Amino acid sequence: QVQLVESGGGLVQAGGSLRLSCAASGRTFSMATMGWFRQAPGKEREFVARINRSGTITSYADSVKGRFTISRDNAKNTVYLQMSSLTPEDTAVYYCNAVIGTIPQGSWGQGTQVTVSS
User: Fold this and answer.
1) Cα dist from 67 to 5, 17, 79, 86, whole Å
2) Which of 1, 62, 92, 104 has its CA 20 to 30 A from that of 45?
């Protein structure tokens, strides 16, 4: 069972940037396509971005395309989400997970809170 620990969230002004990290335990990390998701207050959790096992193929939700960049370091069992040009609509708890397509697999971590002030 892969365990996931997200970090790097915080309070930032609109237009600012943050870099989120997701550290995964388990030897299967490098074999998994990984994704980031977010859940805003009162809303369903939604897909944000994903990256394939080798880090060569990425895809993004339309709402973050051009502003967010997903990357990974398999040697560190870590996936990242670089977020820029943040808006208050990006305020949410952000989670990572292994994915098939955009469907999350396995258990969720505790997430990391991102709050963007206007």
Assistant:
1) 23, 9, 17, 8
2) 1
